[in-house]
C-alpha cells in the first residue's frame, strides 16, 4: 500500500522536467556566463551602428563585385558570419556542456538526484532552460542589428526573411545545445571537447572537399542560410561558397535527428552513470 501511494505521488516525467526548468532558468539568466555572452553580443550591435552611420554619410558599407549591397543583404551577411558561424556554436558549447558538468563541479547534482524527479528529466529541464535563456540573449541583439541595418522602407519586404533567420538560429541553438549536452553527460572535460569540435574540427572540415563536412552541424545549418537570404549579390556569393549545399529538407532532417538522438542518448547516459563528486 505504501509503495502504491508513493508511486501515485511520484511526479510525471513532464512535471519533473518543468520543475527543473523553472529552477534552472532563473539561475542561467542571472549567471556570469549569460552576462558575459550578452556583452559579447553587443559587438554586432556596434558594427551595425557604424554601418548605419556610414550609410547616413552616403557611403556604401558593403559592395560585391562593385555593386552596392542593400540593407537586407548586409543584415543577411551579418547573420551568417557573426551569428550562425560564431555566436550560435559558442552559445551551444558554453551552455550545453555545462548543463550537467556545472552541477558536478558545484557538487549540487546529488541534490537534484535525491529529489523525487527522474534523472532524465533533469537533463531535459535544464536543456529547455538553456533554449529559453540563449534565445532571450540572442534575440535583442538580432532585432537591434536588423532595425539599424535595414532601412525603414525595406522592413515590410524583408521582415519575413528576418523570421526565417530567427528560425535558423533557434534550430542551431537546439542542435548544438543537444549535442554538447550529450557530451557534458558522458565526458569529464566536455568544454575542451566542445571547443575543439565547434572551432577546430568543423572549421577544418568545412574547408575540405568530399564528404567530411557532412559530419558537422555547420554543414547542415549553413546549408539553410542561402534559402533565407535576399535575392541579391550576397545571396549569390554565399551560394558560390556553399556550391554543394544540401537541400532544405536534408538540413532539417539531419539537424532534427541530431537533436532527438543526442537528447535520448543523454538521458540514457545520465540514468546509468554513477557520478562521483570529488571532495
Please summarize what this structure is:
This protein is an all-alpha fold and 279 residues long.
Question: What would you say this structure looks like, in words?
Answer:
This protein has a two-stranded antiparallel sheet with strand order 1-2. By secondary structure, the chain is mainly α. The protein contains 14 helices and 2 strands, in the order ααααββαααααααααα. Helix 4 runs parallel beside helix 8 and helix 5 packs antiparallel against helix 8. The N terminus is likely disordered. Helices cover 77% and strands 1% of the residues.
**Which regions have little confidence, pLDDT < 50, spanning 5+ residues?**
1-7
What class do helices, strands and sheet pairing give? mainly alpha
Radius of gyration: 21 Å
The total of beta strands comes to 2
Ordered list of secondary-structure elements with their pairings:
Elements: H1 2-9, H2 13-29, H3 32-40, H4 42-56, E1 63-64, E2 67-68, H5 71-96, H6 98-105, H7 109-114, H8 119-149, H9 155-186, H10 190-207, H11 217-222, H12 225-228, H13 233-241, H14 248-272
Antiparallel strand pairs: 1-2
What features would you highlight for this structure?
mainly alpha, 77% helix, 2 strands, single chain, 279 residues, 14 helices
Amino acid at each position: 500500500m505504501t509503495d502504491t501511494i508513493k508511486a501515485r505521488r511520484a511526479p510525471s516525467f513532464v512535471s519533473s522536467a518543468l520543475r527543473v526548468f523553472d529552477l534552472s532558468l532563473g539561475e542561467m539568466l542571472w549567471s556570469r556566463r549569460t552576462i558575459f555572452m550578452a556583452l559579447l553580443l553587443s559587438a554586432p550591435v556596434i558594427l551595425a551602428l557604424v554601418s548605419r552611420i556610414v550609410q547616413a554619410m552616403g557611403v556604401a558599407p558593403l559592395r560585391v563585385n562593385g555593386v552596392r549591397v542593400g540593407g537586407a543583404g548586409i543584415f543577411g551577411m551579418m547573420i551568417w558570419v557573426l551569428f550562425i558561424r560564431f555566436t550560435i556554436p559558442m552559445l551551444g558549447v558554453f551552455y550545453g556542456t555545462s548543463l550537467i558538468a556545472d552541477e558536478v563541479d558545484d557538487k549540487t547534482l546529488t541534490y537534484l538526484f535525491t529529489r523525487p524527479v527522474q534523472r532524465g528529466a533533469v537533463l531535459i529541464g535544464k536543456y529547455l532552460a538553456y533554449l529559453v535563456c540563449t534565445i532571450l540573449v540572442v534575440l535583442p541583439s538580432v532585432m537591434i542589428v536588423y532595425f539599424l541595418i535595414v532601412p525603414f522602407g525595406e522592413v515590410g519586404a524583408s521582415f519575413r526573411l528576418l523570421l526565417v533567420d530567427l528560425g535558423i538560429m533557434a534550430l542551431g541553438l537546439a542542435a548544438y545545445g543537444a549535442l554538447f549536452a550529450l557530451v557534458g553527460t558522458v565526458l569529464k572535460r566536455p568544454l575542451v571537447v566542445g571547443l575543439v569540435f565547434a572551432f577546430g574540427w568543423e572549421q577544418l572540415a568545412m574547408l575540405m572537399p568530399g564528404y567530411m563536412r557532412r559530419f558537422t552541424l555547420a554543414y547542415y545549418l549553413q546549408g539553410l542560410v542561402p534559402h533565407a537570404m535576399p535575392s541579391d549579390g550576397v545571396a549569390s556569393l554565399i551560394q558560390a561558397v556553399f556550391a554543394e549545399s544540401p537541400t532544405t529538407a536534408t538540413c532539417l532532417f539531419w539537424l532534427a535527428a541530431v537533436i532527438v538522438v543526442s537528447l535520448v542518448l543523454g538521458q540514457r547516459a545520465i540514468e546509468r552513470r554513477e557520478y562521483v563528486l570529488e571532495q
